[in-house]
Amino acid sequence: MSWSADEMMTVAAARQLHAGATCFVGIGLPSTAANLARATHAQGLVLVYESGCIGAKPSRLPLSIGDGVLADNADAVVSVPEVFNYWLQPGRIDVGFLGAAQLDRFANINTTVIGDTYDRPSVRLPGAGGAPEIAASCGEVIVIVRQTKRTFVETLDFVTSVGFGSGAGDRERLGLRGSGPRMVITDLGILQPDPQTCELTLTHLHPGKAVDDARDATGWQLAVSANVSTTEPPTDHELATLRSLEATKSGTDS
Amino acid sequence: MAEPAKFSTLAEAVASLVHDGDVVALEGFTHLIPFAAGHEIIRQGRRDLTLVRMTPDLVYDQLIGAGCAAKLVFSWGGNPGVGSLHRFRDAVEHDWPRPLELEEHSHAGMANRYVAGASGLPFAMLRGYSGTDLPGRTPNIKPVTCPFTGEVLAAVPALQPDVTIIHAQRADAAGNVQMWGITGVQKEAVLAARRSLVTVEEIVETLTPVPGQVVLPTWAVTAIAVVPGGAHPSYAHGYSERDNDYYVAWDAISRDRDAFERWLQEKVLAPVGGDR
């Protein structure tokens, strides 16, 4: 089967989630990838949605984080204050799964405004939602985002959620308890923080993509690993499962 | 708070409880969003409202576009799974139909502001916002030091809306309110407010227990109005499904000022009973 770049990205993200882990899921690409993981290799993956659905087992892909299908078979449905205070804040969730509108070399995320001024932005984005505390408190964070020069920028217009701040040691200084972004998965490849500097480094390319594709889609001088691997292409089973999941979504994705 | 809940029509309840300039919270986290009440506020021409809501959703896009709001207190202003709230964006980016002041938080911050309001405390604290640009833009986020450990935490002031409006599945004849499914922050939002209005799908003789239910005793609620389908295009678990096609269709309606004005005229201002 042939596949699209978005499908490769979603499959690559799903592979990072393992049965037995608890995962705080944002809507859109993260939700699709988390549900793909649960439908393929990680049936015991515990999905937590900010609407208060803990252990959600949706029979079809939700359009929002509060579709009824998320509450139907959940292990528990709790209030919104409870999901943030009792479940996220103490560090009970293993993996936070986030998207981004802008991202910098230390995997800090902007989902608030694009433009020079906050008061008169060129694009007003939705804002923080659950992301700042997901990024702070989950054991680790995975970011899934399409890679372009508009998205991968030298300087964020607004810091909504913290990755590694301005570099190594910043999370500790800020009192952020989780270990931060483990991986940024894009439609071109995978970036991982350098163990010393925490700067995002290209470690994997998806089949058919070149280092220059990633460099051209990055607004800073992209660090590239000495040993860039090629991502395993999606299997027929992964693709078929993903497509059948997508077909269950009501409404249409933007 | 000690008076028994009063049953009234939606129009009467909005007229008596929602005033120009009020701080108004319509809560419901994707589920049980009180759309019909929002449309009634538009019909009655309320102005200069401070609208409070974690996820403004389509209902505040509509109120903002209709010119009801002077200020928005929120944490996530998008059309879930679809994209932007275009009336909200037009107000922020171009002051249309009027400037909109913003007070912006994270979900955890907003949820805790309601908890503090419901608890009668002046502020809430949380481990949050650290390292982000939000405290620099939102004066209502300040550091507080734990008197026991010395840890520095974020403090946010209590939310105390003049009126909170929610939608619930049902009430009994005495005015006790029952809701279930995703119950979000509605209990806290009602208890934090000076006045409250609950629209319900139906009135029943007695409330049969339901797993995961939240019950608000009659004396904690100011007014109840029976509005079947009052959450559409959101939903009422056990009564209706979320109308995801409506959320998708809203994108085109809300992108264009003229299309929005036509929608407002046809679906909210012209018909009695609103968009159902």
Walk me through this protein's architecture.
The complex is a heterodimer of chains A (254) and B (276). Chain A has helices spanning 5-14, 29-39, 68-72, 80-88, 131-137, 170-174, 211-216, 236-246; strands at 22-25, 46-48, 53-56, 76-77, 95-98, 102-103, 109-110, 113-114, 123-124, 140-144, 181-185, 189-193, 200-205, 223-230. Chain A is α/β, with parallel strands linked by helices. Chain A has a single domain, classed as Glutaconate Coenzyme A-transferase (3-Layer(aba) Sandwich). In chain A, β11 (181-185) and β12 (189-193) form a beta hairpin. The longest helix of chain A has 11 residues, at 29-39. The two termini of chain A are 24 Å apart. In chain A, 56% of the residues are buried. Chain B is of the alpha/beta class and 276 residues long. In chain B, α2 (35-43) packs parallel to α3 (57-65) and α3 crosses α4 (86-94). Chain B has 2 domains: 6-105 and 159-269, Glutaconate Coenzyme A-transferase (3-Layer(aba) Sandwich), CATH 3.40.1080; 123-157, no CATH class. Chain B has 9 helices and 15 strands. In chain B, α3 (57-65) links the parallel β3 (49-52) and β4 (69-74). The mean pLDDT of chain B is 95. The radius of gyration of chain B is 18 Å and the shape is globular. Classes of the chains: A alpha/beta (254), B alpha/beta (276).
Give the SSE map.
The complex is a heterodimer of chains A (254) and B (276).
Chain A: H1 5-14, E1 22-25, H2 29-39, E2 46-48, E3 53-56, H3 68-72, E4 76-77, H4 80-88, E5 95-98, E6 102-103, E7 109-110, E8 113-114, E9 123-124, H5 131-137, E10 140-144, H6 170-174, E11 181-185, E12 189-193, E13 200-205, H7 211-216, E14 223-230, H8 236-246
Parallel strand pairs in A: 1-2, 1-5, 5-10, 10-11, 13-14
Antiparallel strand pairs in A: 2-3, 3-4, 6-7, 8-9, 11-12, 12-13
Chain B: E1 6-7, H1 10-17, E2 23-26, H2 35-43, E3 49-52, H3 57-65, E4 69-74, E5 78-79, E6 83-84, H4 86-94, E7 101-104, H5 107-119, E8 123-126, H6 134-137, E9 142-145, E10 152-157, E11 163-172, E12 177-179, H7 186-192, E13 195-204, E14 214-216, E15 223-226, H8 244-255, H9 257-269
Helix pairs in contact in B: 1-2, 2-3, 3-4, 5-7, 8-9
